[in-house]
Design goal:
The chain is an alpha+beta fold and 75 residues long. The protein has one domain. The protein contains one helix and three strands; from the N terminus they run βββα. It has a three-stranded antiparallel beta sheet, with helices on one face. Strand 2 and strand 3 form a beta hairpin. The termini are far apart. 23% of the residues are buried. Bound molecules: zinc ion (ZN).
Length: 75
């Protein structure tokens, strides 16, 4: 299971029986759907390892788009 400690823009469902991971071809365990961000509504079937990479990629993308408010004045 993937820990869901804080709100991530990814919905996690159980993969259909017999489906394969889109990235490595191993048996898929989760179906992930990106919500918002650059990967909006992008979904796929992943094993646990690839699912965590997918979640991390989507989460980092979302955090960079929301933290663009750091304007620094040059001296
Ligand atoms: Zn995989």
């Amino acid at each position: 299971m993937i820990e869901n400690e804080f709100r991530r823009p990814v919905s996690i469902d159980t993969a259909p029986r017999g489906s394969l991971c889109e990235w490595c071809g191993k048996p898929a365990e989760v179906q992930l759907t990106a919500i918002g961000g650059i990967a909006h509504n992008e979904s796929g079937l992943f094993c646990n390892a690839c699912g965590q990479d997918f979640t991390r990629a989507v989460t980092s993308t979302a955090s960079t788009t929301t933290s663009t408010n750091t304007t620094q004045q040059p001296l």
